[in-house]
Design goal:
Elements (H helix, E strand, L loop, with lengths): L1 H19 L1 H5 L1 H12 L1 H25 L3 H30 L21 H27 L1
Helix pairs in contact: 1-4, 1-6, 3-4, 4-5, 5-6
């Protein structure tokens, strides 16, 4: 029962991420090609890998729903990468936000307006990934102990 719920949550969060960033996925090849001269091949490759995570979350969710053995390992890997990525983003955002009061007005002369979105979806998906990861890891350890 818990594995099917985790399957549904994993696939839903992967699908939500793809739908919310559909224009980026439509032009992913061009986006990655344009990233190479700006940030380098390493960052472009990392960006491409991060665009695969939601797709792999959907695949892992379908596998978990069908109770395939391989999907448990795939889900552990994908949810680990997803949690680490989202947790890193949250920490970096909060550390950058805490440095704002210390920016002098001289540094703000060429400032750019930045559109800010809510981080609640990031918090929510990170917590769901962490809880799912914990339940699946306990399930895997229990399965290995029985064997």
């Amino acid at each position: 029962m818990a594995q099917r719920f985790i399957a549904l949550v994993t696939a839903a969060t992967g699908f939500w991420f793809i739908v919310s960033r559909w224009p980026d996925y439509q032009h992913a090849y061009q986006l990655l090609i344009d990233t190479v001269p700006i940030a380098g091949f390493y960052i472009a490759a990392l960006t491409g890998m991060m665009m695969l995570i939601p797709v792999l979350k959907i695949v892992a969710g379908i596998g978990l729903w069908r109770l395939c053995r391989w999907s448990l390992y795939l889900a552990l890997i994908v949810l680990s990468v997803d949690f680490v990525t989202l947790a890193t983003a949250v920490v970096r955002f909060h550390s950058a936000a805490s440095n704002v009061p210390f920016v002098s007005e001289l540094e703000l002369s060429g400032a750019v307006n930045v559109e800010v979105h809510s981080l609640w979806p990031t918090y929510t998906v990170a917590v769901l990934s962490a809880l799912s990861l914990l339940v699946l890891a306990l399930k895997l350890s229990k399965r290995q102990a029985e064997e």
